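cron nightly-structures :: item 1 of 1
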Amino acid sequence: MKNKVISFINIVGLSFSVALCLLLYFYISHEQSYDSFHAKKDRLYRLEMTDFWNFENKQPDKHIFSFLTRDNDNKYGLAFPLVTATDMQNAFPEIEAVTAIDLNNQQQLIKAGDQVYSEDHVVYTDENFFKLLSFSLKQGNIKNIFSSKNNIILSEKTANKYFGNDNPIGKLIQLANDSTRLFTVAGIAENAPENSSIQFDLLLPNIASPDYEKNINERFNNETHILIVGLRD
């Protein structure tokens, strides 16, 4: 009480310090929780490709933390050719399954009924998506969910936005930039958790992608998909 100014500065400074530490703790905890909800997380690996090209006059990155990363200056690519998934699974018996996820065409216009919606998370993938990753189907048969290239899966929030309380299974929706193709709602998936690095509103089979034939025919010359490998026990 005798030194009110100094006491005020100390108390306010301590309060800000504690608040900052708590914010940092919660932020770091949230970042470290990403993708931890997958039941097979200890056996899941995302493929990365090292930059093995020796460009002339290539200089290592210089930044404030360069001294910490000087032994890890390689660049890593995440995009792989689609055929890599099948080839790896056929070549390595240790692999249970590989799922290929195309995140390049996420922004799409979707027409449901008379309404057109702009969606930011339209993802092309395959039947191993639900086999390896802990995204649950609320409706639909997981065994044949992608048996047809015209099947589509909606997230819960997307199904509710398009169809309200009506049962969406069997209803038709259309990619507005492809007026000749209709997709049948074959399943409803639980919304992806906030701490998931993969977010989706709609899921379509890779074979429905307009670039599918090109990706197959060009084999290793077209890098388009993120690959997640699940190893056996």
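cron nightly-structures :: done
The first strand starts at residue 44 and ends at 46.
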